[in-house]
Amino acid sequence: MRLIKPFSLNLITLALLGAGSSVYAADFGVQNANIAAGKTANYQCKRCVETQGYTGSVGVSVGAVDADDNHAINQFGTGEDGAIAGVNADLAYQQSGYKAKVQAHQLGMDNGFVTMEAGKSGHYKLDVDYQTITTNQGSNASTNLWQNNGMLTPSDQTRVLDLALQRQRSGIGFEYDFSEVLGLGLSSYARYDREDKTGHRSASLISPSPTNFAEAVDETTDKFSAGVVLDGANWLSELSYNGSRYDNNMSDLSLPYAYDVYSATPDNQAHQVSLSGQYRLASSVFSGRVVTGRMIQDQDLIQMSGNPIQNWDGQVDTLSSNLAASTRVSSRLRLGASYDYSKRDNRSSVFDFAQYEFNSMSGAFKQNVPMDIERQTFKTNASYRIASGYRLQAGYDYKQVERSYGEREETRDNEFWSKLNIRAIDKLTLDFGVSYGERGGSDYQANELTSDETESLMRKYNLADRKRTEVNARASYTPLEWLTFDVSTYYANDDYDATEIGLTQAKDYGYDMNVHIQVAEPLSVYAFAGQQWIDSDQNGDQASVWHTEVNDEFINLGLGATYSGLMDGRLILGSDYLFANSSSNTGVNGYNTGNSNTNAYGSYYSYNHSVSLYGQYLISEQMAVKLAYQFERYFDTDSAAVTPDSIPGLVTLGDLNHNYNAHQLMLTFSYKLK
Predict the structure, then answer these.
(1) Dist. CA 316–CA 346, nearest whole Å
(2) What residues pair up with 595 in beta bridges, in sequence order?
(3) What pTM, to 2 d.p., does this model score?
C-alpha cells in the first residue's frame, strides 16, 4: 500500500499563508495618517528629486573550482571542478511613474537567480522570477542496482553517483489596483509558481534483506494564489485562494524476481480559500480570519494479498479561524487577546481488513480509522509601562488538542510568561524573559485501538505530561560610538515527570555573542561566537531496563574585517572566517539479572572551516573589478554510514562521510549606470 506523502500545502503552511496575508500588514501608525485636508504644497522637499532613467549596476563573474567532493556545492554554490561563469545585475528604471527592476545573482551557475519587476506606481505590477537550487547529500555513492523504466536490476558492476537534487523554480505574478478606476480601495493579485526537481536521493527497501539504493527523482510542484483586497479609512479585508498540485513522474519500482517492491510517492493536491479582515476603532484594533481547505490524494495502489483497496480515495478537509483584539486602555497599559480554532476532518475511505493471528485467519475484520484532529488556542497578554524606559509584559496561553483514535485523545497545555524591557540606561538595552508551562490531558492509551499494540508504560514525548521552564536574557551595549556588544543567553528544561518508558528529561541551553568595532573610518571589524547544548534522558522497557543519555553540541565562531582606505579609497579589502562544529554522542547504561554494563552508540561529528578573501578595485566611478578567493575544509563522520560489505546481508550506498578541501577563485567585473 502507498504511504501518504505530506502535502505541499500542509496544515502548518496553510495557517502561515493565512496569517501572512496582506490584510495583516496594515499599519495604523502616524505615518499613515489621513493628511488629505492638509496644505502640503508649502512643505514639499524642493531637493528631493527621484532619479529618472536607468540606475544600478550589471556584472559578470568568471572563475574556477577545485574540490575533492561535490558536497562543496552547498557552500560555494557550485561544486564541480573546472571553470564557472555567472551574471549579476541590480538595475532599476523609472520614468513618469513607470518603474522596472532587474536583480540577478550568479545566474548560470548551479545556484543562482533572477527577478524582474515592471509596472506603474499605484496601478499595476508584473513580476517574473527564475531560480536554480542544487544540494548535495553525498558524493561517490556506490550501488549495484541499476534503475531503468521502473526496474531495479542487480549488476556485478558498481555504479558511482552523487546523491544530489537540482531544483528549477520559476514564477509569474501580477497585481492591479482598481482604486482610481472604481473610486474604491480595491486591489487584486495573482501568482503562479512551478518547481521541477530531478536527481537522486537515498532510499531503502526489504526484499528479502535490507537494501539501500539511489532513488531517481523527477517530480513537479505547481502552486497558485489569487486574491482581492478591499480597504477603507479604518478597515481592511481580503479574500484569497491558495492551491498546490504535486505530480510524481516516476513509477513504482520492481525487481526482476518481484514486482512493485517500492511504491512511488503518490500525486496529490491541496486547495484553500480564506477571508480575513481588520478594523480599527479609536484605540482598539480587531482582526479575524476564516480559512477552509481540502487536501486530496486519489491514485491506484500496489495490489497485495488481503488488501481490498484498488484505489485510495484520500480526502482531508480543514477549517481554521482566528479572532484577535488589542486595545490601549491608557498611556501606560495595553491589553490583547486572541482565539484560534482549527479542525482536520479526515474523510478518506474506510475498508474492512481481515485480521490474522500468527499464520491463520481469525475470521474477524477491522476497519482502517481516519484520524481527526481539533485544536483550540486562547492567548491573552498585557503590556504596562512602569516608568520611562521600563516596560513589563505578561501573558497566558492555553491550547487544547483533541485527537480521534490516538494514544491520547486530549491534551491541554497551559503556559504563563513574562518579559521585562529596560531602555532607561544610557547606551544599554536589556531584555529578560521567563515562562512556565504544563501539559496534561486525558488518560494515556484510552483507546482500545492502541492500548494493546504498545507497552502500557510507554509515552510519546509529544503527547506525554510535561513541565517546561524557560528563561532568557539579552543585552546590547554601545559604550563608544565605534564599539557595540550584543549578548544573549537562554535555558529551557522539559520534565516528563509521568513517563516511565520514553523521554524523561530534555535540556536546551546556549549563548550568542557579537561585537562590532569601527576602528577608524576605513576599517571595521566584527566577531561572533555561539554555542548550544541539547541533553536528553530516556528510559527503556521493563524486560531489560536501560537508560540512555544523548548529548548534542553545536559551536559557531566567526571573524571578519573590511578596509577601504587604500589607493585614495579605490581599493577595498575584506576577509571572513567561519568555524562550525557539531557533535552528537549517545551513552547507554543498563542492567540485566543484576549485572551492570555500559555501552555507547556510535557518535556523529562534523566540522567546517571556511575562509573568504576579497579585494575590489574601483577603476572609475562606473567600473569596478573584484577578485575573491574562498576555501572550505569540511569533515564529518557518522557511524551509521558503513561500507557495502561491512554488515552481512545489508546492501548500502557505501561510506558517505565527507573529508575534503575545496577552493574557489572568482573574478567579477561590474559596471554602474549613471
Answers:
(1) 4
(2) 592
(3) 0.84
- The pLDDT, as a whole number, for residue 312 is 76
Q: Are 464 and 499 in contact (CB under 8 A)?
A: yes
Q: Round to whole Å and give the CA distance between 587 and 661.
A: 32
Pick left, alpha or beta for residue 569 (phi over 0 → left; psi -120 to 50 → alpha; otherwise beta).
Answer: left
Of 482, 553, 563, 467, nearest in space to 518 by CA:
482
Per-residue H/E/C for 11-54: HHHHHHHHHCCHHHHCCCCHHHCCCCCCCCHHHCCCCCCCCCEE
Give buried/exposed letters for 280-291 (b at 16+ CB in 10 A, else e).
Answer: beeeebebbbbb
Provide the grid cell at 660.
575534503
At 439, list the grid cell.
501539559
What region, left, alpha or beta, does residue 445 occupy, with left being phi > 0 and alpha being psi -120 to 50 degrees? Answer: left
Grid coordinates standing for 373? 484532529
Low-confidence ranges of the chain (pLDDT < 50): 1-44, 358-359, 592-597
C-alpha span between 271 and 316 (Å, rounded): 11
502 in the Ramachandran plot: left (φ > 0), alpha (ψ -120 to 50) or beta? Answer: left
Cα 588 to chain centroid, rounded:
32
Cβ pair 131, 116 in contact under 8 A: no
Condensed to tens digits (0 to 9), the pLDDT of residues 122-152 reads: 899 999 999 999 999 887 788 878 888 889 8
Rounded-to-integer distance, Cα 590 and Cα 356, Å = 35
Phi, psi of 156, rounded to the nearest 5 degrees: -75, -20
